[in-house]
Amino acid sequence: MSELWVERHRPRTVDDIKGQKQVVDRLKAYAEKRSFPHLMFAGPPGTGKTTAAIALARDVFGDDYRRNLLEMNASDERKLESIRTKVKQFARTAPVPGTTFKVIFLDEADALTPDAQGALRRIMEQNAQTCRFILSCNYSSKIIEPIQSRCAVFRFRPLADDQVRSMVVSVAEGEGINLDEDAADAIVHVSLGDLRKAITSLQVAASMDEHVSREIVYETTATAPPEELHRFFLACREDGFQPARRRLRELLDRFGLAGTDLVNQLHRGLGDVPFLTEGQKLSVTQTMAEADFRMVEGGGEALQLDAMTARLCTLLSPEMKS
Ligand SMILES: Nc1ncnc2c1ncn2[C@@H]1O[C@H](COP(=O)(O)OP(=O)(O)O)[C@@H](O)[C@H]1O
Ligand SMILES: [Mg+2]
Q1: What is the pLDDT of residues 103-135, one digit of tens each?
Q2: Is the CB of 200 inside a 6 Å radius of any atom of ligand 1?
Q3: What are the pLDDT digits (tens) for 137-173?
Q4: Which ligand 1 atom sits nearest the alpha carbon of residue 9?
Q5: Which distant-in-sequence residues (6+ apart) come within 8 Å of 172 by Cβ?
Q6: CB burial of residue 259 (10 Å; 0-12, 13-18, 19+)
Q7: Relative to the alpha carbon of 71, which ligand is closest?
Q8: I need a labelling partner for 57 at 20 to 30 A (CA). Which of 139, 183, 226, 268 fits?
Q9: Hey, what domains does the chain have and what are their CATH numbers?
């Protein structure tokens, strides 16, 4: 594993970014005009925010773009003072010849407190003549209104399953990996639209064996496959408490899951369990939410999971069917 595949396969120009069509179309227009306002990229991890910021800088400034781009991560910069100092120094250095502005990319800007964001806003204003800011965040609502209103806001979405799949397949081809069809589906399933997670999962699985199977994917990503989750619900319904409890322990051990991971995966898998009625799914959801909350609040994992299993056995046993 000499190089991270997420880096090696990071799109270099805006045009190569997968999905995010509306974002890409607007950024391409900026690239053509070689100019843009302050930007804010909001969206979940692994959807292309950092990639888009760097690719846009490259498209606008050419291969020498690093001279015009300052990258900072707000969660590393404890004090706003250090951001101020870096911005000041950077604004002073010579730009790429023929360009009129520089770009400051502040990743994870929502890590800044509202006070720090207020100071950031002043830094943006003081340098508005020479610098454009690109801020990235998971939620735009965590950025103070006066900053939002100074930026063009772009929303990045989780990638669609077929987009994740085609990316994973092409990375596997590029890396000379033999990826089973159902292993590609498993990567799509575990990554939930997060391309960083998808490509990393592929690399981790491939480091175990150049032939990547569905099983390896699930085992290396701490994810129980859907049929295993179904079996647990089935055991609750058919076999009673002790066997269901054994299944649950087995899932935790085999896939290396914490109690809350398991509950969340069960929740996600619940929708397509064929043998449960709508009414049962509603009650099961409430039960799982309660177990999750109690574990997060510090309730003992073993006891909470047993209590959840006991409740599921009661809810799902055929006598209870409504
Ligand atoms: N829309 C996308 N198109 C192509 N690759 C992507 C995309 N989003 C993420 N990736 C892949 O995932 C990696 C991480 O993406 P990044 O842009 O850093 O995500 P984030 O939204 O968390 O900033 C990239 O190096 C790239 O390999
Ligand atoms: Mg990022």
Answers
A1: 999 999 999 888 889 988 998 998 888 899 999
A2: no
A3: 999 999 999 999 999 999 999 999 999 999 999 999 9
A4: 27
A5: 178, 179, 184, 202, 206, 212
A6: buried
A7: 2
A8: 139
A9: 5-155 (3.40.50.300), 161-220 (1.10.8.60), 226-320 (1.20.272.10)
